[in-house]
Amino acid sequence: MKLGVIGGGAWGTALAQVAATGGRETLLWALEDEVVSSVNDRHENSAFLAGIPLSETILATSDLADLDSCDAWIVVTPAQHMRAVLERAPRGERPLVLCAKGIEERSGNLLHDVAHEVRPGCPIAVLSGPTFAHEVARGLPTAVTLACEDRALGEALRARINLVNFRTYCTDDVAGAEVGGAVKNVLAVACGVVEGKKLGQNARAALIARGFAEMVRFGLAMGGRRETLAGLSGLGDLVLTCNSTSSRNFSLGKAIGEGHAVADLLKDRRTVAEGAHTAPVLNRIAVERDIDMPIVGAVDELLGGEVQLDELLEKMLSRPPGDEED
Ligand SMILES: NC(=O)c1ccc[n+]([C@@H]2O[C@H](COP(=O)([O-])OP(=O)(O)OC[C@H]3O[C@@H](n4cnc5c(N)ncnc54)[C@H](O)[C@@H]3O)[C@@H](O)[C@H]2O)c1
Ligand SMILES: O=P(O)(O)OC[C@H](O)CO
């Protein structure tokens, strides 16, 4: 099986490395010519994953038409670009493994719904979990969720990508896996703010726990299952992302907490902090569907520049605490 990886950012590059390490013929599509030449000539992605040697068997291209030769595609563009890239990619039915973490802003749809709409007939799987690209690319032990409604296809895909150090756990709960990855990015921004503002470890733990309650409420409303949300793609990824400056979302929040202007932090970014794109749409859906998500709402307000941080913190801390199980 030849695998096509669509997206030459840090995560697409790391997943190409996983595929190549497993002996798969691997073609990496990247938007930037400099990424293509860096991977093909120097076996490194110096733009997005500098300093990590890549398998010499990974071939890169900037021509989407070349992906026609692949049996399955691993789709790793940022969430907001996935639709446009899949629309331009060659036709034909082949499994798509979606790896971005987000919700499409304009439609409010989870990414598997977007992919079904753009590529009807292509079987869809979702790969998510606690996975910093730089660790995966170095071959450090990692475990992920692979969600596919068609269990047999999920098993077949697992056989293609599983490695000793890239443990792949299957589920048929696609919505649950996607919601975990999308919501944790927004909560990581909040935890970064707590770090930047020096509010302490207790506050961060409280945010993780109450944020998880928000993730579960939203996930259940979207048709996901509680055990998926408590698994690798939900709680697992939440814990990773809310505790490390390796996370772009956490780092964004930390800089906001330190007093940097949101607009400056978001303009001219080369790397993606998906939480900034997910917060408005997630909050919009939560309000429309009457799902209680105060932390997500606060992050949305903060990123939208609608409120000053100190004012927001005062508002959050003076909310009357409810019952824990609510
Ligand atoms: N980096 C990680 O550790 C990691 C791990 C798991 C999941 N993810 C997810 O993978 C997705 C991709 O993130 P990343 O870290 O690989 O990206 P990145 O931040 O390393 O790089 C940015 C990417 O955006 C792409 N891009 C910019 N404009 C584009 C456009 N108009 N059309 C298509 N692509 C465009 C660039 O080509 C580049 O591939 C995100 O949804 C992210 O949440 C990342
Ligand atoms: O750098 P972040 O915040 O996009 O997080 C990367 C991965 O999603 C961690 O699992």
TrEMBL record:
<feature type="binding site">
    <location>
        <position position="129"/>
    </location>
    <ligand>
        <name>sn-glycerol 3-phosphate</name>
    </ligand>
</feature>
<feature type="binding site">
    <location>
        <position position="249"/>
    </location>
    <ligand>
        <name>sn-glycerol 3-phosphate</name>
    </ligand>
</feature>
<feature type="domain" description="Glycerol-3-phosphate dehydrogenase NAD-dependent N-terminal">
    <location>
        <begin position="3"/>
        <end position="152"/>
    </location>
</feature>
<keyword id="KW-1208">Phospholipid metabolism</keyword>
<feature type="binding site">
    <location>
        <position position="237"/>
    </location>
    <ligand>
        <name>sn-glycerol 3-phosphate</name>
    </ligand>
</feature>
<protein>
    <recommendedName>
        <fullName>Glycerol-3-phosphate dehydrogenase [NAD(P)+]</fullName>
        <ecNumber>1.1.1.94</ecNumber>
    </recommendedName>
</protein>
<feature type="binding site">
    <location>
        <position position="247"/>
    </location>
    <ligand>
        <name>sn-glycerol 3-phosphate</name>
    </ligand>
</feature>
<keyword id="KW-0594">Phospholipid biosynthesis</keyword>
<feature type="binding site">
    <location>
        <position position="131"/>
    </location>
    <ligand>
        <name>sn-glycerol 3-phosphate</name>
    </ligand>
</feature>
<dbReference type="InterPro" id="IPR011128">
    <property type="entry name" value="G3P_DH_NAD-dep_N"/>
</dbReference>
<feature type="binding site">
    <location>
        <position position="272"/>
    </location>
    <ligand>
        <name>NADPH</name>
    </ligand>
</feature>
<feature type="active site" description="Proton acceptor">
    <location>
        <position position="184"/>
    </location>
</feature>
<feature type="binding site">
    <location>
        <position position="101"/>
    </location>
    <ligand>
        <name>NADPH</name>
    </ligand>
</feature>
<feature type="binding site">
    <location>
        <position position="133"/>
    </location>
    <ligand>
        <name>NADPH</name>
    </ligand>
</feature>
<dbReference type="Pfam" id="PF01210">
    <property type="entry name" value="NAD_Gly3P_dh_N"/>
</dbReference>
<comment type="pathway">
    <text>Membrane lipid metabolism; glycerophospholipid metabolism.</text>
</comment>
<keyword id="KW-0520">NAD</keyword>
<comment type="function">
    <text>Catalyzes the reduction of the glycolytic intermediate dihydroxyacetone phosphate (DHAP) to sn-glycerol 3-phosphate (G3P), the key precursor for phospholipid synthesis.</text>
</comment>
<dbReference type="InterPro" id="IPR006109">
    <property type="entry name" value="G3P_DH_NAD-dep_C"/>
</dbReference>
<dbReference type="InterPro" id="IPR013328">
    <property type="entry name" value="6PGD_dom2"/>
</dbReference>
<keyword id="KW-0547">Nucleotide-binding</keyword>
<keyword id="KW-0521">NADP</keyword>
<keyword id="KW-0963">Cytoplasm</keyword>
<feature type="binding site">
    <location>
        <position position="248"/>
    </location>
    <ligand>
        <name>NADPH</name>
    </ligand>
</feature>
<feature type="binding site">
    <location>
        <position position="248"/>
    </location>
    <ligand>
        <name>sn-glycerol 3-phosphate</name>
    </ligand>
</feature>
<feature type="domain" description="Glycerol-3-phosphate dehydrogenase NAD-dependent C-terminal">
    <location>
        <begin position="173"/>
        <end position="313"/>
    </location>
</feature>
<feature type="binding site">
    <location>
        <position position="101"/>
    </location>
    <ligand>
        <name>sn-glycerol 3-phosphate</name>
    </ligand>
</feature>
<comment type="similarity">
    <text>Belongs to the NAD-dependent glycerol-3-phosphate dehydrogenase family.</text>
</comment>
<feature type="binding site">
    <location>
        <position position="11"/>
    </location>
    <ligand>
        <name>NADPH</name>
    </ligand>
</feature>
<keyword id="KW-0444">Lipid biosynthesis</keyword>
<dbReference type="InterPro" id="IPR006168">
    <property type="entry name" value="G3P_DH_NAD-dep"/>
</dbReference>
<feature type="binding site">
    <location>
        <position position="274"/>
    </location>
    <ligand>
        <name>NADPH</name>
    </ligand>
</feature>
<dbReference type="InterPro" id="IPR036291">
    <property type="entry name" value="NAD(P)-bd_dom_sf"/>
</dbReference>
<keyword id="KW-0443">Lipid metabolism</keyword>
<dbReference type="Pfam" id="PF07479">
    <property type="entry name" value="NAD_Gly3P_dh_C"/>
</dbReference>
<feature type="binding site">
    <location>
        <position position="184"/>
    </location>
    <ligand>
        <name>sn-glycerol 3-phosphate</name>
    </ligand>
</feature>
<dbReference type="InterPro" id="IPR008927">
    <property type="entry name" value="6-PGluconate_DH-like_C_sf"/>
</dbReference>
<keyword id="KW-0560">Oxidoreductase</keyword>
